[in-house]
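ugh ok so i messed up the first submission bc i forgot one of the chains. this is the corrected input, ALL of the components this time, i swear. 775 residues overall. if the numbers dont match what u have on ur side tell me asap before i send this to the collaborators (the ones from the other lab, u know who)
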Amino acid sequence: MELEKFYYDNRIVRNFAIAAIVFGVVAFLAGLWVALELRFPELNGPLSYITFGRLRALHTNAAIFAFVGNAMFAGIYYSLQRLLKTRMASDLLSKIHFWGWQLIIVSAAITLPLGLTTSKEYAELEWPIDIAIAIIWVVFGVNMIWTILKRRERHLYVAIWFYIATFITVAVLHIFNSLELPVHFWKSYSVYSGVQDALVQWWYGHNAVAFFLTTPILGLMYYFVPKAANRPVYSYRLSIIHFWALIFIYIWAGPHHLIYTSLPDWAQSLGTVFSIMLIFPSWGGMINGLLTLRGAWDKVRDSAVLKFFVVAITAYGMSTLEGPLLSTKTLNSIAHYTDWIPAHVHIGTLGWNGFLAFGMFYYLFPKMYRTSLFSEKLANAHFWIGTLGILFWALPMYVSGFTQSLMWKQFNPDGTLVYGNFLETVTQLFPFFLLRAIGGFLYLTGALIFVYNMIKTAASGKFLAEEEAEAAPLVGEYKKHKGDHWHRLIERKPVQMTIWVTIVILIGGVIEIIPTITVSSNIPTIEAVKPYTALELEGRDLYIREGCNACHSQMVRPFRSETARYGEYSKAGEFVYDHPFLWGSKRTGPDLHREGGKYPHSWHYNHMWDPRSMSPGSIMPRYPWLFSVDGNDATLDLSHTEGKLKAMQKLGVPYSDEYIASWQMELEAQAAAIAEDLNKDPNIEVAPNEEIIALIAYLQRLGTDIKNVEVVENQ
Amino acid sequence: MLKYIKHYMSVDGLEIFPLISFLLFFTFFLLVLFYVMRQDKKHIQEMSNLPLEGDNTDLP
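and heres the new structure output, hopefully the right one now
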């Protein structure tokens, strides 16, 4: 048969690679900065834009979507063309995908420091950006599936299945988690509330890890590891089982982020069981990746690419064993809310994602620039410095997590908490915080060496934008072999493949989410729980703007150590008007769900002005921009309050029409009362229209609905 | 307080969900396993060699 001549598009691969490298450095820098802020809270100076609460989201988004995202697209565009023996279907779609994605990243980098956030982790971007993400994602998917349809290779290699699963699942997750009702261009409320919002968010959050940080990277592993080792994957059969089992199970595991919370117990258990089951496909994949190097281990000594791959796959194995273990109730009760969780996450991102991306770029750049790597020595130096960086990052955080958790739970013989002051459990961790920053610094140093090496490599070669290739076209009907079966069929039928993948990933989501949302008995309502007042709602939005939920949970778990510290444990029915939920996932500071009424207004006033004046040694940043002091204008913006109340009403929060008509009077009365109380303090001079008043109103409301009931019952 | 706990534990008909899920997965897993075992060796070999073709960028 006559061979057709065509050209692979290397330009799009290179563009995504450069974007990944640039944003990677940004993500690592932001990470190092927030790590330092955790030890030296004064670092943000007078700037609200770079406080930990706002920058943390920037760091996570940059690492996930800008660094790993761009690296994954580079790898997909490279491998897809070659596995299908065709050029990408549309250069235009490739370009729209590239520039659209970078525009989204830039808009994230601008809006997050401004405090424009939905507060939902890894889905912080506001609704206009969410829509842009959906459109660009579809552009990527259309381009990919179109390319698959015009391929010259009949069968789809396993890497491509992983890419298809990535496209489908991320689309489903993103759309359902981002359903929100806009108030104005930069503000929206999640359509779900409380427990339901938490379940949908962590179904998304967990599967963002699964289908953005894992499945595409596994696809890259199945392509680039055989390529770099120059031998086929260890077991193709195992890869089929790996794929189907992984995508089936992963989607169920989300509720393990909510163990011991107010999520219905059956959903928690389901999350745990499926998380444990995940060990098997994950380790199947890890073994398959590592054993691909069978008989080639000597090459690992000489090849920096393979070194990076080996550590990446090992990190994948470690974190996919650790994750299921953390999903068990026993370990979760220790690890949740502590530094153990970021340690676990960073083994995944720095080790698995980061090192696989670095290995891939060390392989790709010399290929695309028709040259050899500028310096293998520097690549090896990067490898060792980076590996040390991961260890310095993770190990202190494991110790820190354990230390803090044990301190939280330690009781005196008389039944009181040994460390009743939360701050004591924080100051104990300072040495670990510093060690982590050193780890981050090492990892960043390694990455800078890598950047230098890539620039020099590119400079020493000539970029091959259009790479010539030849292959026979796919013609005629496929002749069925004897003994052909369904799987072989879908390996050459991409549309069926896509449909099957969709069905498989929907089963888990449907079984977990639909009952929680539709079965009302899952969330027992509590009569005493009332909607927030207009002032409290504005205060809550300030809490969201400042990213308080990055460091404070609002979920008292039903443990003696927590009820002794914080008060009554949290009930599902208390969150029914919380659009979005604000349970948080990390306690760098104490839980705030029972904060209401714990301290006088003046305590909060002084504490927000300078946390160290109330709690010496605290690592919370100052929030002077909430105060109209020294020429700063902190007047609370009321121009959208009515719109916010109406949006909440649409979402089912029972604000009466009369309340919406008279909110301003009530807001002013509540603010005046708080200001009057504060002004009794001779050191305080505050006007009722300052932002701090709204925030205090919200903090004083937190968790009090139930307290009042018990008082009534006791009477 | 106890009534809340009791409420979670005794939502009618929900215990069946984990069971259904497990059976679904297990059947699915067995199916995949069964068919994977039946694949012929030549096809598997062709498939696993796919990444090693289709790339003309051997270094100059």
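quick check: Chain A touches chain B through 67 residues (CB under 8 Å). that seems consistent at least. Chain A has 27 helices and four strands.
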